[in-house]
Every structure is written in C-alpha cells, then in structure tokens.
Amino acid sequence: MKVRDIRDMLGECRITGPDEIEISHISCDSRSALHGGSLFAAVSGENADGYAYISEALDKGARCLLAERPWEMDNRGAAITEIIVPDVREAIGRVSAGLYGKPSEGMTLVGVTGTNGKTTVTYILESIFKASGFETGVIGTVNYRFKGEEVPAPNTTPGAPSLQRLLRDMKEAGVTHCAMEVSSHGLQQKRVSGCGFDAAVFTNLTHDHMDYHSTVEDYFRAKSLLFTLLKAGGVSVVNIDDPWGCRLAGSLPGLITTGMEKEADIHPRGLSVTPDGIDALVQTPAGSVSVT
Prior knowledge:
The chain is an alpha/beta fold. The protein is 25% helix and 28% strand. The protein has an eight-stranded mixed β-sheet with strand order 9-8-7-10-6-11-12-13, sandwiched between helices. A five-stranded mixed β-sheet has the order 1-5-4-3-2. Strand 7 and strand 8 form a beta hairpin. Helix 3 runs parallel beside helix 5. The longest helix has 14 residues, at 118-131.
C-alpha cells in the first residue's frame, strides 16, 4: 500500500511529502521495530502524547507520520511524509484495515459487548460455529485463538494495527467465522475502526469501569458505538432484561431481542437448572429449540 492510497481510504486528510512511499507496517509505539516502510501514528494516550515520540520513531526508521497536527520538521523533513487527519484513532483503524486487505469483509464477524457475559457468549458462539462445520476464531479476554493456535491476550480488544493483522492472519488460515469481545475501552479508543460486523450483541451494563468512564451515560454511549459498525443487513442482538438494553433496542436496525420473558424474540418456554447443567426449551423466531 502506497501513501497515495491512504487519501482514497480516508477522504479528509492532508498529505505533505512523498506520496509514493510503500507502507508495510503501522505502529503507534515508537519502541517497536520500525523501518523505511513504517507509518508511525501519533496517538494521544491516557498518560502520554504520541506526538512527543515522533522524533524517536523517525530515528528508528519510520518515514511516514499520521497525526492530527503538523510536526515541526528537522533536517529530515524532505524525506518524511505527513498525513494530517481530524481523528488519528479513527484513521489508524481504517488505514490498518486497508493495509491488511480489509479482512473483516471476507468473514462473518460477530462483536459482543457488555459489562458481563462477553467471554461466555463468545465461547458459546465458538461452539455453535464449530458444530456447524465452520472454521472459527475467537478474540477476547482469555486469549486470541484459531486453527489450534492460542496467543495470550494483553487486551480484551487489541489495538487497531494488531487487530487488523490478527484478522488478516485468521482469514489467510481459512477462518470463516470470528467471535470477538469488544470492550468499552476498545470502542471509545476506536480500536475496531475499519471493522465491519455481521452481528453485534449487547449483554448488559452495570456500574463497572467507572475508573475509565466519567459517567454511566458515557459508558453506555461507548457500548452503543459497536452497533454503528454493522455491515449492511447486519443483525443487532440485545438483552432486554437489562434496562440499558431496552433503551438501546429502540434505535437499532435488524433487531433481535433476548430475555427471560415472552416479550423477547428469543426466550425460554421452560427452564431447569440443576448441578448437572441447564435444560431449556427456547422459543425463537424460527420455532422452538431444545437446549442443554
């Protein structure tokens, strides 16, 4: 991917410097391995401003910068290309997706968000996908896994360059269906920018993570961002037993509701919980299903 291709991806951007540079690597960490084909994104974090690390990134070989304001060029300026954008977090996800071939477009991607239950839902989806004969990947709190390979998970939702590279690797390995936990941190920090989801799931919302989100309302808005990333014809699955789910459900496309009561599209008609497990007769829009 050349720098000039980024203009088509982003639309609103200003490029100064050579636009024929071939981009082969994207990073927002100046400590990572950089080279002449590296693009360094100056992302502002909670404790540091990536703009302050531009010089270090250039010293390590990066020749392209993605930032929200111009850098005061030194004597290397003529060889450096700057891409100035309104929102660097949004841009890095879209550019990463472009670099790695927009991998989410070539698979069924399900995103799961909520305070509790994300991991459980992705494990159940993994089981269903495998039983249906699909090649399956999972991205979440415990690990990232596909094709018998497991990678430790430093974050529930990886940063945008790592996420798009992981999805590319899954796609190249033949993965057709991927279940992903999508945290509120990941949504607010736009780590999933560049992804298109076939289905988005909301489990619930409780008063956790208030160390990061200033109010519960902010927390809810972050969770809601997942549903803006649905592909055309995508499905929204929402637990309406949760009051925040009821609020969310009123504004979503392709809505399927879940809950314990019959008002939900998917609900149990009979339920038995014992030390041996759960047995239920579940009513769905496609008819009743017996579940153990």
